[in-house]
Amino acid sequence: MKHGSLPWRIVHSLEKRRQRYFRTGHLVGRFGSKQSVSRALGRLRDDGIIEQLDRGLYRVVPGKAPSLVFDRAWSNPGTEFPPDKLIAVTMGRPTFRDTIRLCHAYGVSRVHHVLAELKSSGDVDVKIADEWIHRLETIKQAFQNVAKRQVAAGHGRPAR
User: Fold this and answer.
1) Are 135 and 95 spatial neighbours (Cβ–Cβ below 8 Å)?
2) 5 DSSP 8-state letter
3) Whole-model pTM?
4) Is the CATH number of domain 6-62 1.10.760.10?
5) How confident is residue 156, by pLDDT bands cut at 50, 70 and 90?
6) Could you give the 3-state DSSP secondary structure of residue 42?
7) Which part of the chain is CATH 1.10.10.10?
């Protein structure tokens, strides 16, 4: 993302205001037309910087590796996995608390995508994968509910 580009300006503004949740409508006008804001948000979503929770409702993804409860790299302490590898290792033997932490750090859609790949390759049992895919939908719904409450209370809305 280029310094000074519209996606960069949006992210910089959200970080400056420490906003985690926001609606598209709050950005239109300040950052341009609905179309240009939508394109910028699409680029940010594709880069994994934000996650779309609902129509026009987004969450900023921290992107920092979470502190997991169950250390899956016990045989190689201090190992840092790339995000998709960490997700794959965790979803191989998932716990609810660690799955929540992965979803918070990297986004539900990214965790869902990695789990679907593990399921299709046969690395995770189909029944277990289907159960966790269902749980991921529940987690996404919970994130949506939190986001809607935050935005409605004015915590997700930028100061004008």
Assistant:
1) no
2) S
3) 0.82
4) no
5) low
6) helix
7) 6-62
How big is the chain, counted in residues? 160
Distance, CA of 116 to chain centre: 16
Which residue has tokens 């269902």? 134
Rounded to whole angstroms, the Cα distance separating 34 from 37 reads 5
Output the CA angle 130-98-151, nearest 5 degrees. 90
H-assigned helices in the chain: 6-16, 34-46, 83-92, 96-106, 108-121, 126-152
What the block records as the tokens of 158 is 């930028």
Residue 65 binned pLDDT confidence (cut-offs 50, 70, 90)? confident
Tell me the chain's radius of gyration from C-alpha atoms: 17
The confidence score (pLDDT) of residue 160 equals 42
Q: What percent of the chain has pLDDT over 90?
A: 71
Please state whether beta strands 57-60 and 21-23 pair in parallel, antiparallel, or not at all (unpaired).
antiparallel
Contact 78, 84 (CB under 8 A): no
